[in-house]
Specification:
The chain is of the alpha+beta class. The chain is built from 25 helices and 55 strands. Keywords: Methyltransferase, S-adenosyl-L-methionine, Transferase, tRNA processing.
């Protein structure tokens, strides 16, 4: 009874708001109107639409038979009167039968009897005076009070009153969330009884569990009905329900089933304009929650008609399938097996290994619940152990505050911009590798979008030029434009939804000098959308991808676009959906999503969460690796990836906030967590909510529109004459457990802190080293007169010293440096700590997580240095630098910076002094330095081709460097490679090819030769740029790996 009362009040809310101008029938069964939330209104509207659609289809069937519509567990639903009053032409010769518990039906009959508007639709309405059984009847309407757990009385009444067993009757049974409350055997008996009639259809609308009872929505729904003492007793999957109907006697190919979310997008069920019209009734933006509701309810249509052949598919020779417009075919047409499951032969069969699975670890208490908030970077690039979460919807209202999460207690709280009110569905975009960021858009209510933009510059929030119009759920990424004299940090945004409901298709770019400018699109143009997700191909690229989002008609776009910002500030876009979906096959629907997020990780770029258009995402596939196009399943406490925020950290991801209102069942909130591949036993949680800071009122300075008129847009944070600020290299505590090969594959440097590398960190004193290695052991040493050694200019000499003399020189602070060589064959053989320094080798060991280094090791040189800088160079082999004593500062540059770092052709070292801040080399303003300071026990992973140099930060430095092969063996040049930096075979062959190309132009005039050689060089540069942007975590890898 409680569920019926709640349901009928909700349907009355829909009737009054969404059926404006039409006859109202729910009003007579609801004593007082109560307006429901937009989510509940839309959910019940869809339920009502589904039932009405099914009944209409049956009523429109051409047949000479009498039609009977029997509503099992009807409650106070006035379904008969909706048709008798609104579509009387369909009801000629039809009879509607309402069936429910006797007490409820007596009340319903009483309402009908005293309501003229209802009596006028039921001529000769007569009450029997019975307490149960047949309670009332008229020409088109019959009311029966009985318990469906005992079918005999109902069967007798229907036969006596309507002669259902006769062959001239076509029957439609309707059950809207009624048999779900019955024990399984009792509801199965109902299905079996209905299947005994010769010409019968069954329309069933109920809940189901598309991803198990532990899905946050499902758990909230089940708990709700348990609390009402009306538990769902036979809830399962759609496949299981179809199997139950087949077992009851309905033909397999006469039984179809779809979730309500699938029906929502079915054009034969619901047209685009009809969906748009709903938005004009009341503002709506609870799309993920609506999708979750629709995904947990299904509509089943089963039929058994005499003379129809159901042995083959398609079985409907004279009319279309009930779900003709649905994109899903695997459920309706799949063979029913013993488990009740079926799958399309085109569905990918994933076999997950331990390396595919991600584990969740909840953050320490306390928790602050909010959803549709956004991440704010720490105001200092050195504060890599803190992150902010701004705005969003809290447990009571929209928030203007900012949470600070950190591993440490003593942190500087992070603040958001001083907004006038709380905001959600906004974007905060970090400007490149700086700590500066830009906030854009957002909303209060769905019809009140914000156009505000705020810049955080040097830790202070300043208002900047508004967006051309307010928008929320737009996509935003940071771009680094290759401008002179310094790269320009900009923000590119696309799409979103405006206050008036318009869905936008414009591209905008922001700079501090010009504000927001519209970007023209050449060629193909992505259609308007909101709630899409976007990411650049690499961290500092000017190209990227756009996936998913929703149209103005409320349909999720299952498309995939690649875009590129050209030098003339126009955008070229290419629709590459076909190549991705061809690989995913029948599972292609998990690509296009609404409300998902892209994020970088040590596994590559991941697409996480949101909702898909054709079915609900599951624990197995809600995380999709965009490089391999394989899902990454999760284990552990399960977050709901809706309204969440993500940040890469510690070899994993921080999942902050998130949750959803689960229809009328309650709200589920995420407990923020870390997502990585460490097992719970080896992961020690340190992250915690440390502070929550309110926004405060804006100062007059903050409220004044800030522009960069006095400097270039490429120089927001510093003058162009100084060196770029280095990016702090990501830190990871190896004790937390990591998958190190993934970092190697990602080709990004990382510092592993506080590693257990053996007793060397304390044992290797000067005295111990001299005693163990031998005082008279001869070693080759670099001796420099300058602080910075230069390999090209050879401003140092090679000297041979006794090891004790060398160590004494280091103690005196002399500029000497030892890079150990092979004791037996220094010119021909790579050095090995175990072979060349056996007395101390057992003091050093790599952590077991770095086993791939040990297994593929090339050499392991011992390095000891005084106050001298290493020259700038790159290594062809990957390597790990393990700091044993002292502190060392390193600067690293990505391979894309090589043309700005002074490398001559064929050389692997440069003469540029990157530590000379007083007299910086002009080309350094175009580079992207990364910085690490190593302490004893720290390990720095240096990927191949990352240009780097080192300087002592404190005391003498002792380190062990382990070089290892991480590329295919055939890629390395054949022959001697003592230092691990011999260029790859392809490069050596390429230089010879260049020489041959140049020689082929020798007989032409110089200006002609120069013309064509320069054109070839430009072509090579474009190829290099394209290859670089599509490398590593680039989504272009999808196409190379697709079969």
């Amino acid at each position: 009874m409680d569920t019926n009362k709640s349901s009928i009040v909700s349907k009355r809310s829909v009737e009054k708001l969404y059926y404006d101008g039409q006859a109202e029938y729910f009003r007579y069964f609801v004593s007082k109107f109560k307006r429901r939330s937009p989510l509940i209104n839309r959910g019940y509207w869809l339920r009502m639409k589904a039932i009405e659609h099914a009944v209409s289809r049956f009523m429109c069937e051409r047949t000479a038979k009498k039609k009977v519509i029997i509503n099992l567990g009807c409650g106070y639903d006035p379904l008969p009167f909706l048709f008798l009053g609104k579509q009387p032409q369909l009801c000629q010769g039809a009879t509607f039968v309402d069936v429910d518990y006797p007490v409820l039906m007596q009340n319903k009959v009483g309402v009908i009897d005293k309501t003229e508007q209802l009596r006028s639709l039921t001529p000769k309405f007569t009450k029997t005076g019975n307490q149960s059984g047949l309670l009332a009847s008229s020409d088109p309407y019959v009311a029966i009070g009985c318990d469906l757990s005992d079918m005999t009385p109902l069967q007798d009444i229907l036969q006596d009153h309507l002669s259902l067993d006769n062959g001239d009757v076509a029957i439609l049974f309707v059950s809207e969330v009624s048999t779900a409350y019955m024990p399984r055997n009792a509801s199965q008996a109902v299905f079996e009884w209905t299947a005994t009639y010769p010409d019968v259809r069954f329309c069933l609308l109920e809940q189901h569990l598309p991803d198990g009872s532990d899905h946050p929505f499902a758990a909230t729904m089940l708990a709700h009905f348990e609390k009402l003492r009306t538990p769902l007793q036979a809830v399962g999957t759609m496949e299981q329900m179809k199997a139950r109907f087949v077992a009851a006697g309905y033909p397999e190919h006469g039984t179809e089933i779809r979730s309500l979310w699938e029906l929502w997008s079915d054009p034969t069920f619901l047209g685009a304009e009809e969906r748009r019209a709903l938005d004009r009734v009341e503002p709506f933006d609870e799309w993920e929650e609506f999708a979750l509701f629709g995904s947990h309810y299904f509509l089943l249509m089963a039929e058994k008609e005499p003379g129809r052949d159901y042995s083959m598919k398609p079985y409907r020779s004279t009319r279309a399938s009930f779900f003709a417009g649905s994109s899903r075919t695997s459920i309706a047409s799949s063979a029913v097996n013993g488990s009740g499951s079926g799958s399309s032969p085109d569905s990918p069969q994933y076999h997950f290994g331990p390396g595919d699975i991600l584990q969740t670890h909840e953050l320490l208490e306390p928790h602050n619940f909010r959803r549709f908030a956004t991440v704010v970077p720490a105001p200092d690039t050195d504060a890599g152990d803190s992150i902010g979460l701004h705005g969003g919807l809290g447990t009571q209202e929209r928030q203007d505050s900012c949470n600070t999460y950190s591993r440490y207690d003593a942190i500087q709280p992070i603040t958001g911009p001083p907004l006038r009110t709380g905001v959600m569905c906004h974007a905060i975009t970090r400007l490149g590798s700086t700590a500066n960021c830009v906030m854009t858009g957002g909303r209060t209510s769905p019809d009140k979008a914000s156009a505000e933009s705020w810049l955080r510059l040097d830790g202070k929030w300043r208002k900047v030029q508004d967006l051309p119009s307010g928008r929320f759920r737009h996509s935003a990424v940071s771009l680094v434009l290759p401008t002179v004299p310094r790269p320009a940090h900009t923000v590119l945004i696309f799409g979103g939804k405006a206050s008036d409901g318009q869905v936008l298709d414009e591209w905008l770019v922001w700079t501090g000098e010009t504000g927001w400018q519209t970007i023209a699109v050449k060629g193909e143009k992505p259609p308007a959308r909101f709630g899409a997700t976007m990411i650049t191909d690499s961290r500092e690229a000017t190209s990227g991808v756009l996936v998913g989002g929703m149209t103005s008609a409320g349909r999720i776009l299952n498309d995939f676009w690649h875009w590129n910002l050209e030098y003339d500030m126009t955008l070229t876009c290419q629709n590459v959906t076909g190549r991705a979906t061809a690989f995913l096959k029948a599972d292609a629907c998990i690509l296009g999503r609404f409300g998902a997020q892209f994020t970088r990780s040590n596994k590559g770029i991941l697409l996480i969460g949101g909702v898909a258009g054709a079915r609900m995402l599951t624990r197995q596939d809600e995380i999709l690796n965009m490089k391999t196009l394989r899902p990454q399943p999760i284990q552990g406490p399960r977050p709901l990836f809706v309204g969440h925020a993500l940040e890469e950290m510690d070899g994993g991801l921080l999942v902050l906030g998130g949750g959803a209102t689960c229809f009328s069942f309650g709200t589920t909130w995420n407990r923020s967590c870390v997502l990585n591949d460490a097992s719970p036993t080896e992961f020690q949680m340190e992250w915690q909510l440390r502070a929550t800071i309110e926004a405060g009122k804006p100062t007059p300075e903050q409220s004044t529109i800030f522009t960069e008129s006095h400097t270039t847009a490429s120089d927001i944070s510093a003058s162009s004459s100084r060196l770029p600020d280095p990016v702090r290299i990501q830190d990871i505590c190896i004790t937390h457990g990591i998958n190190f090969p993934q970092y190697v594959s990602a080709a990004r440097p990382v510092v592993l802190r506080n590693c257990q590398i053996g007793p060397c960190t304390t044992a290797w004193t000067n005295y111990y080293l001299v005693s163990a290695i031998g005082a008279e052991r001869k070693v080759a040493v670099h001796s420099s007169s300058a602080e910075k050694m230069d390999f090209a200019r050879k401003n140092f000499t090679y000297i041979t010293q006794d090891f004790s003399s060398f160590m004494s020189s280091v103690e005196r602070g002399e500029r000497v440096y030892l890079r150990a060589l092979s004791k037996e064959a220094p010119n021909n053989k790579p050095t090995s700590l175990a072979e060349d320094f056996p007395a101390i080798a057992n003091d050093f060991e790599l952590p077991h997580e770095l086993s791939c280094v040990t297994q593929n090791a090339h050499s392991s040189p011992l390095r000891i240095s005084g106050p001298v800088h290493m020259w700038l160079h790159y290594d062809v082999m990957a390597n790990v630098l393990c700091q044993v004593r002292g502190r060392k500062r390193l600067l690293l540059y990505p391979p894309s910076d090589v043309s700005h770092l002074g490398f001559e052709a064929g050389a692997s070292s440069s003469s540029i002094d990157v530590f000379d801040a007083a007299n910086p080399h002009a080309s350094l303003s175009l580079t992207h330095p990364h910085e690490a300071v190593l302490n004893p026990g720290d390990i720095l992973f240096i990927p191949p081709m990352w240009v780097h140099t080192a300087a002592p930060a404190e005391g003498m430095s002792v380190a062990v460097n382990v070089f290892f092969r991480n590329l295919p063996e055939k890629g390395y040049a054949v022959g001697r490679d003592v230092y691990g930096n011999r260029d790859l075979a392809a490069y050596e062959r390429g230089r010879k090819d260049i020489a041959r190309i140049v020689k082929s132009f020798e007989d032409l005039p110089g200006d002609v030769s120069g013309f064509y050689l320069e054109r070839l060089a430009n072509e090579m540069m474009e190829k290099a740029r394209s290859v670089r942007e599509s490398a590593g975590t680039s989504l272009h890898d999808i196409y190379a790996e697709a079969p």
